[in-house]
Specification:
Number of domains: 1
Radius of gyration: 11 Å
Shape: globular
Structural class: alpha+beta
Number of helices: 3
CATH superfamily: HPr-like
Low-confidence stretches: none
CATH architecture: 2-Layer Sandwich
C-alpha cells in the first residue's frame, strides 16, 4: 500500500540544514519507505543529502509518498512536520 500527499512547506528556512536533518529523522522514524519530490525530482526522504539537494524553500509545494504498513500515518506525521516553522525562535 502506498499513499501520496502534496504539502506547502511552512519552515521559514525551507528544508535546509537543521530542518532537513529533523525531517530525515522523522521520515526514518515512520518505518515506511518515504520519498519527497519537488517539481520532477524525487529523492529518498531518509537521505539528508537527497533532501537538501531539492532546494526546498518556504512556500514551496512538495509531494511526499509513503509505502508500506502505516503509510497514511507516516504521511500525517510528515505533513504536520512540513507545515510547521522549525526556525521559529
Amino acid at each position: 500500500m502506498s499513499a501520496t500527499r502534496t504539502v506547502t512547506v511552512g519552515s521559514s528556512q525551507g528544508l535546509h540544514a537543521r530542518p532537513a536533518k529533523l525531517f530525515v529523522e522523522a521520515a526514518q522514524n515512520t518505518g515506511a519507505q518515504v520519498t519527497i519530490a519537488k517539481g520532477d525530482k524525487s529523492v529518498n526522504a531518509a537521505s539528508i543529502l537527497g533532501v537538501m539537494s531539492l532546494g526546498v524553500d518556504k512556500g514551496d509545494e512538495v509531494t511526499i509518498t509513503a509505502a508500506g504498513d502505516g503509510a497514511e500515518a507516516a504521511l500525517d506525521t510528515l505533513e504536520t512536520f512540513l507545515k510547521t516553522d522549525h526556525d521559529e525562535a
